[in-house]
Design goal:
Blueprint: H1 2-16, E1 20-29, E2 39-44, E3 52-55, E4 61-67, E5 69-76, E6 83-90, E7 94-95, E8 99-101, E9 106-111, E10 114-116, E11 120-129, E12 134-137, E13 142-145, E14 151-153, E15 156-160, E16 167-171, E17 180-182, E18 191-193, E19 195-198, E20 205-208, E21 213-215, E22 218-220, E23 223-224, E24 231-234, E25 240-242, E26 245-247, E27 250-251, E28 258-261, E29 266-268, E30 271-273, E31 276-280, E32 284-287, E33 292-294, E34 297-299, E35 302-304, E36 307-310, E37 316-318, E38 321-323, E39 330-331, E40 342-343, E41 349-350, E42 422-424, E43 435-442, E44 446-453, E45 459-468, E46 471-478, E47 485-493, E48 496-504
Parallel strand pairs: 1-7, 1-8, 9-11, 10-12, 11-13, 11-14, 12-15, 13-16, 14-17, 15-18, 16-19, 17-20, 18-21, 19-22, 20-24, 21-25, 22-26, 23-27, 24-28, 25-29, 26-30, 27-31, 28-32, 29-33, 30-34, 31-35, 32-36, 33-37, 34-38, 36-39
Antiparallel strand pairs: 1-4, 2-3, 2-5, 5-6, 40-41, 42-43, 43-46, 44-45, 44-47, 47-48
């Protein structure tokens, strides 16, 4: 009987091999937003099956046509632990289960001090900096935390990334972690810059009698079982939070983005967006506190008011934008806040503290360009004139990011078959200090225009404006005579437009 069953199975497989089947699925890279480049190998494991492979695209999607049969499937990406699916029978169109690859890293736990170098760390147990000790984390380091593991700061922490190489505090693919706690013995001079804190299920950042500085950080995708999904300030804490994005955090009770109890945090030039809670303060909840909120955008938060102030009469809110928040912007605000009585320097309606209530006109709320302002945003040059000027010497903008996206940035909202008519490759080198090469490929002949713009949308170089046949091309952008800063290379061909950001550093 067993021999007959084996023979029947073989017969089924042999007959299946006369046709092809389409197989697709998603394979993600833990902690990344770009999931491109994972090899998916289908190793033949039956008569008629043919070994083949494909690669994932930027969103982790792969698709391949295979001869029907049985396969062993292997997912591999340099620097990540591989995964496999064995003895997979593929006799009809199949969507595979989602796979997430975890970074290979150095395992750490326990007490830390000194220097954490630029590499990947798998945090397998609680870590801490003891009182009187110090820890410096190098640019580009990634700390991937296991389930419920937390980071306690009782001493001094310095973690300064850069705009193009941040420091990441993230969860592993199959768990959530316990966040970063600054305790009462932590050094007030502790500082985090260009850091990502995400994936905590026990508050993103917790301050207890502590006063560190956060600049240009992203605090997103964290949650709390009670209060303060993104940030929790407790007992006379006075952290300074500037140019930070606090988005997509949640709490089951108060303060989806920020919860503040008996504290006086300062929030300047931040973007607080898309946070949620079940009760008060989708964006911010303050209880017996004295927060300062200035040059900040509070938008799209869900809960009973976006800013909920309980017994907090010394709150200062000025030169900020409040828009599209569920159930209104304020509960119990200071006098005159939220009452439109005048116009600001841009001619927009505002209250006596120059708060506006306009759509900030973000370029996007997702991806690398999330929460950048478009050049038509009412938040541009609408900040406090007494604040430090923007790098272009204009009045400070509201929100976390400068410069605004130029009007030439055009990008389809979803992939289209037409986009295969050409492709714009990443400029190399980028960042660059003199010149960079911009490569592109045409699938069909077309008139091609490749132009470089500055952050205000002004053309600074026209590299190509001519007819090109199908093929691969390189264009050199010589930035001699131009100041350091962000520029945008815009390619137009076959009726489509694609733009990429390049950074000149001198």
């Amino acid at each position: 009987m067993q021999k007959a069953l084996i023979a029947l199975t073989a017969l089924v497989l042999l007959s299946a091999c006369a046709y092809a089947v389409q197989v697709d699925g998603y394979c993600y890279l833990a902690g990344q937003t770009n999931h491109e480049g994972t090899k998916v190998l289908f190793q033949a494991d039956s008569p008629g099956a043919v070994t083949d492979s494909t690669y994932t695209n930027g969103v982790g999607y792969y698709q391949i046509d295979l001869s029907a049969g049985a396969y062993d499937i292997y997912f591999t990406h340099q620097g990540y632990f591989g995964e496999q699916i064995l003895d997979q029978l593929l006799l009809s169109p199949t969507t595979m289960q989602e796979i997430t690859l975890v970074l290979i890293g150095i395992e750490i736990s326990g007490e830390l001090s000194g220097l954490l170098e630029d590499t990947t760390y798998r945090v397998i147990g609680d870590i801490w900096v003891s009182s009187g000790d110090s820890l410096t984390i190098e640019v580009g380091a990634e700390l991937i935390f296991g389930d419920e593991v937390q980071f306690d700061i009782n001493g001094y922490l310095y973690a300064a990334g850069t705009e193009i190489d941040s420091i990441k505090f993230i969860n592993s693919s199959d768990s959530t972690w316990g966040g970063i706690d600054f305790n009462s013995s932590s050094d007030d001079s502790s500082r985090l810059e260009y850091c990502l804190i995400t994936g905590s299920s026990s508050i993103g950042i917790y301050f207890d009698h502590s006063n560190p500085t956060f600049e240009n950080c992203t605090i997103s995708g964290n949650s709390a079982g009670n209060r303060g999904g993104g940030i929790y300030c407790l007992m006379d804490s006075s952290p300074a939070i500037s140019n930070c994005t606090i988005s997509g955090n949640s709490a089951s009770n108060h303060g989806g983005g920020i919860y503040c109890w008996d504290s006086s945090l300062t929030i300047s030039n931040c973007t607080i967006s898309g946070n949620s809670c079940s009760w008060g303060g989708g964006g911010i909840y303050c209880y017996y506190s004295s927060p300062t909120i200035i040059n900040t955008i509070v938008e799209g938060n869900t809960g009973n008011r976006s800013v909920y102030l309980s017994n907090s009469p010394n709150t200062y809110i000025a030169y900020s934008d409040f828009y599209n928040n569920q159930n209104g912007n304020f509960y119990n605000p200071p006098q005159w806040v939220g009452q439109i009585v005048t116009l600001n320097a841009n001619g927009d309606s505002c209250d006596l503290y120059y708060n506006i209530f306009e759509d900030p006109l973000f370029y996007s709320t997702t991806g690398d360009s999330a929460f950048f302002l478009t050049v038509s945003s009412p938040c541009i040059d609408a900040g406090d004139p007494a604040s430090p000027r923007d790098p272009d010497s204009t009045i400070a903008d509201m929100g976390a990011f400068w410069p605004p996206m130029p009007p030439v940035w055009v990008e389809p909202s979803s992939p289209s078959p037409q986009t295969t008519a050409y492709s714009l490759s990443p400029a190399y080198p980028n960042p660059f200090n003199a010149g960079t090469i911009i490569s592109y490929e045409l699938q069909a002949a077309s008139w091609v225009k490749l132009v470089v713009y500055d952050v205000r949308g002004r053309e600074v170089a026209r590299l190509i404006d001519d007819w090109r046949t199908a093929g691969n091309y390189d264009a050199t952008f010589d930035a001699g005579g131009l100041p350091s800063g962000i520029y945008f290379a815009r390619l137009q061909a076959n009726g489509l437009t694609q733009t990429q950001k390049i950074l000149l550093l001198k």
